[in-house]
Write a structure and sequence with these properties.
286 residues, 5-stranded parallel beta barrel, two-stranded antiparallel sheet
């Protein structure tokens, strides 16, 4: 049963379901939304007190990077395709060879940090556990941990453009094989996937060149990408957020936890619809 619910595209190595949600009963998450707020402006964000590391000329982040209050910059080499925003209380003094296309800015990031932590709290508070196959709305999954180490280890979030997936992981997410995947399918966008990892230590560790989709929010623990491909974003809290060995983050901002409306459903503005215009109060096809 669990295999069918997690992915019908292939086997998986280890996905432990939280005891409180072992039955994975379907429920409604309507009206429950999660937003990253100002934290959503960053492809990679180190929260307060984080050491943010980048090394290797092939390490790259396609969008904006932020270093929060009291953070420490530990760059040596790499590429940032957007801006690099540093809180005035952070230490950005280390000389480095990172190419920053949008330049370096100084700005108070305490608000972004607060928004990230609030988003983690809001995601944790949603207790409905729905099937991993999308129901056309907000799908909330609770698991203990994910550990993939083989070529056929894959977790697929399958659904349509109106699906949002919020995955609350009480433990860690670890992938260590270049063919291991956390991926989307069936029209689901990476911008509509959020993994909430509130555990301490290092809840997100991706190595071997594995690929993961979505935004990974780890407000209380470190993040290690060495190397990895992230199609989404990374927000790391305590400890170190480290991108090494040609790690790559292709920025796809999380669009929020509200479900979009399909063709024919009622709407107010275009943003209410799944990549469609809102005309005369209804989502139209393109």
């Amino acid at each position: 049963m669990l295999e069918r619910m997690l992915s019908h595209r292939g086997p998986f190595a280890k996905v432990a379901v939280a005891a409180a949600s072992a039955a994975l009963m379907a429920g409604s998450a309507s009206g429950q939304t999660v937003s990253l707020g100002a934290a959503g402006d960053f492809c990679v964000l180190g929260l307060d007190g984080v050491k943010l590391s980048m090394s290797n000329p092939q390490t790259s982040v396609s969008g904006n990077v932020g270093l929060g209050p009291g953070g420490i910059q530990n760059f040596s080499d790499g590429f940032i395709g957007g801006t690099y925003t540093v809180d005035p209380t952070a230490d950005n003094s280390k000389s480095n060879n990172v190419v920053i296309v949008g330049g370096t800015l100084s700005a108070d990031l305490s608000g972004a940090v607060a928004d990230a932590r609030a988003a983690s709290f809001a995601a944790s508070a949603i207790k409905n556990a729905l099937t991993i196959f999308g129901n056309g709305g907000v799908n909330v999954i609770a698991v203990q941990s994910i550990s993939f180490s083989g070529a056929t280890d894959k977790l697929t979030l399958e659904g349509g453009p109106s699906d949002v997936f919020i995955v609350n992981v009480s433990g860690s997410v670890k992938l260590s094989h270049k063919l291991s995947r956390i991926q989307v399918g069936g029209g689901v966008s990476e911008s509509r996937v959020l993994f909430n990892l509130p555990a301490a230590h290092e809840p997100l560790t991706i190595s071997g060149g594995a690929t993961i989709a979505g935004t990974y929010l780890a407000p209380n623990g470190g993040v290690r990408l060495s190397p990895a491909v992230v199609v989404g974003g990374v927000i790391g809290g305590a400890g170190e957020t480290s991108l090494t060995s040609a790690a790559r983050v292709e920025c796809v901002p999380f669009a929020g936890g509200a479900a979009c409306a399909p063709v024919g459903e009622a709407c107010t503005v275009d943003a209410d619809c799944c990549d469609q215009p809102c005309t005369l109060g209804f989502c139209q096809g393109r």
